[in-house]
Amino acid sequence: MDTRLAVRARAGLATMTAVTAVLYLIELVNMATFGLLTRMFGIRPRDVSSLPDVLTSPLVHDSTSWAHLLANTLPLFVFGFLAFLAGLRQFLTAVVLSWFGSGLGVWMFGSLLGHPSITVGASGVVFGLFGFLLVRGFFNRSWGQILLALVLFAVYGGVLLGILPTVGSGISWQAHLFGLAGGVAAAIVLRPRGRAAA
After folding, report:
1. What's the predicted TM-score (pTM) here?
2. What is the pLDDT of residues 139-174, one digit of tens each?
3. Rounded CA gap, 38 and 53, in Å?
4. What's the rounded Cα separation, in Å, for the pair 122 and 164?
5. How far apart are CA 15 and CA 2, in angstroms?
6. Alpha carbon distance 130, 124 (integer Å)
7. Which residues contact 63 (CB under 8 A, 6 or more apart)?
């Protein structure tokens, strides 16, 4: 591993460890206050007063058990770390576009096929980072990144069923779908521009 990649790996591990710690601290507070953070910072679709919650909802998880956060922890850590290996700019672009894509998608289209609900959780960002890692190699023409994408698809590909409206009750397929779209958009935005002629 070259020095630059080693530095990125250490920074990525530190960043994702810190992110994970913050999410668990927020979950502790949310459970201790019986879901107060969910009610305050979750997205309520098409409620104008809830638009700012696009910024906060990925930080909050279900307050009735640890299952929601536990399900997001490993893929978020793995995908975030792998995205960070490409550099801070790549990581931040993928996170921001996934975060906003997921949140705005939920705000506009959430609860259309079900009862009104409040949406929280980092799964939209998880799907976005996954989408970014799956397609960036094709835009970058990088065989290494394409091989990584194939490995990730073999291990985690089943989660893509989460973008379907039939995935199950209590799961925001809109967050997953629009988060995934945000990740793909990040790969497009970050693709190499035209190469100079030899």
Report:
1. 0.92
2. 998 999 999 999 999 999 888 888 888 766 678 899
3. 10
4. 17
5. 20
6. 10
7. 27, 30, 31, 33, 34, 35, 37, 38
